[in-house]
């Protein structure tokens, strides 16, 4: 029996990996322009990093982690996200000792045990940036600008940027109290998860997807009436910077990250056209996280985006990630040991000269080789025939413009270098 890949995972075949590489190149270019440097952390970490760093009350930690004991009896977890690891690495490698802010990016596979569906996988890929060491509102705006610029370059349509402030440990307790007072009379009508959230995490009730919780939540008090002066001023400045950069946004007072170490700015980018899994990017400020992981107080802001969801968004519109996979030269030869060796030598010489070349490795007919040259969209075909070979030449056929010339075998590489298709 053939073994299948695990549920919720994908094989990315050559027809799509080219697009992934283009997206990755685009992301790396943006990072270079915005001054973010790559960090690569382990795919697995000690489980405690995530229970502390993502939060033991979150869905990720309660239901979605791939956790196992290794042979040494340690509890290990496949990373469900990369922010906690980036913070750990920042502390462990004493990056706080470098000039601040420290600007890092990552990309790679993440693992969550979720119900697989369109846009939701168990192994998926995230790209994200983290900016450590500044409280400045311009940092929040820069991070949002980065994400916005990426989707602009990808020409993704129907984008919506939603921003909010979730306050800080000074002002949030009062808001929590107000929310609990508001939801208490409706407690028995809330969904089971929200009844659970009521004590620990009432802010999360606001972004519950259940229609009943949403309807009840509509009348809830707004955080804007509870923000302390510092948070309120910070939020206003983030908005000013976004306006200065001409970025359209909407305020969404119900978009929350309910954990104590999330502070001030929260944002999300959605693409309306991709259905239920419309969130393509989420981020915000987490001034309390580094402390939660044992470091000194270190303000930080960042985002993570789902790379698969970029492709879902692009699938519904024409995109610029189409890959030109044509080759430059296809070498054809008659079935003759000497000719085949000359053809083989030319393939090596062309590749050494940086020219992409393909050659029939077996004994396919002349006609089949000609067909292969067409199928691979070769710009030139070099044909080693018996008669030409006797004269020390081979025919070079221009597959784009037509026409054929005989070129001395010793000069083929130079000729093809000089006649590369643009
Ligand atoms: P969702 O509400 O869709 O579950 P999330 O709040 O769990 O998202 P984050 O943890 O903020 O998402 O991750 C950032 C981004 O990673 C999301 O906006 C989404 O694009 C992507 N993402 C999250 N989980 C998955 C998954 N299981 N499969 C594919 N992409 C995902
Ligand atoms: Mg999720």
Give an overview in words.
The protein has 422 residues and is α+β, with helices and mostly antiparallel strands. The protein has 2 domains: 14-171 and 227-316, BirA Bifunctional Protein, domain 2 (2-Layer Sandwich), CATH 3.30.930.10; 329-417, Rossmann fold. 37% of the residues lie in helices and 21% in strands. The protein has 15 helices and 16 strands. It has helices at 14-34, 47-55, 59-64, 83-92, 137-153, 172-183, 192-200, 211-217, 229-244, 289-292, 307-315, 337-352, 366-375, 386-390, 412-418; strands at residues 37-38, 44-46, 67-69, 75-78, 102-111, 123-132, 159-165, 250-251, 263-271, 279-285, 300-306, 329-333, 357-359, 380-384, 393-398, 404-408. The strands form 3 sheets. The chain has an 8-stranded mixed beta sheet with strand order 1-5-6-11-10-9-7-8. Helix 2 (47-55) crosses helix 4 (83-92) and helix 5 (137-153) runs parallel beside helix 9. The chain is elongated. It starts with 13 loop residues before the first helix and ends with a helix. The model has no long low-confidence stretch (mean pLDDT 94). Adenosine-5'-triphosphate binds next to strand 6, strand 10, strand 11 and helix 11.
